[in-house]
Amino acid sequence: MLASLFSLSHALPQLGEPAQALPGRLPVSYNQPTYKTYSHKSGGVTAEVKASQPFTIKAYNSVSPIHMMDIVASNRNFFVGNMTGSLCPIEVGDCPVGNVTALQVTRKGEAQLDAQVNQTQAIYIGPHGQLRFSLPGGELEEGSENATFTLQPNPIPAPPGIAAFVFSGVGRATGYLACPIAEKGPWQVFAGLGGIKDSWVPGGDVSNCIGIDALATNYTSPVPAAYQYV
């Protein structure tokens, strides 16, 4: 489920200054995350990686119509107001339900989906700011970033046990943007980076996007949330 990924900290060039936070967003007040050691077997080699407890995420913007709606993985991207995309081959037999999107972050600042398939499905920011995920063991597009994700517990005023899933973008990001594909959704999720172009988002108008934070809560199932995300 976990594997080491190369860092692309030089990516996402010329995106400018951080986007401005909108009303209803979380103020920044965090503690340090806690990590456990997980084993991952790939190609006959088992590696141990320090990673967070799996968690699910919801959109947080208390003055928006998508407040506390699930953020899910589907079609290699992340959405609010959509269904989780997953698959499980018949030969696997005892398949996870696959209708929940669960994530983990590592001490290295990388993120991946909580999948049973025996290769990492990395979470990253695409070259146009999209929050994306890879195929199992797949390479990332040129110009992507996967090195600055953190899980930051107890943001104020969230209740205890709630955390924020954060992408810092080497200091450039402010939360995320949820951009509508249609008038009533779903909304595609982007990093809250300044310089996101109209042509990069669904509908062609960044001003229609909603600024959100990603609130995280522990996913406590003893098995991965899905066999593979698609």
Structure characterization notes:
The chain has 230 residues and is mainly β. The chain contains no helices and 16 strands. It has strands at residues 36-42, 45-51, 55-60, 70-74, 77-80, 86-87, 103-105, 111-113, 122-125, 131-133, 149-153, 163-167, 173-180, 187-193, 210-218, 228-229. The strands form 4 sheets. The chain has a 6-stranded antiparallel beta barrel. A hairpin with an 8-residue loop joins β8 and β9. The chain starts with 35 loop residues before the first strand and ends with a strand. 49% of the residues are buried.
SSE diagram, text form:
Blueprint: E1 36-42, E2 45-51, E3 55-60, E4 70-74, E5 77-80, E6 86-87, E7 103-105, E8 111-113, E9 122-125, E10 131-133, E11 149-153, E12 163-167, E13 173-180, E14 187-193, E15 210-218, E16 228-229
Antiparallel strand pairs: 1-2, 3-4, 3-15, 4-5, 5-14, 6-16, 7-8, 8-9, 9-10, 11-12, 12-15, 13-14, 13-15
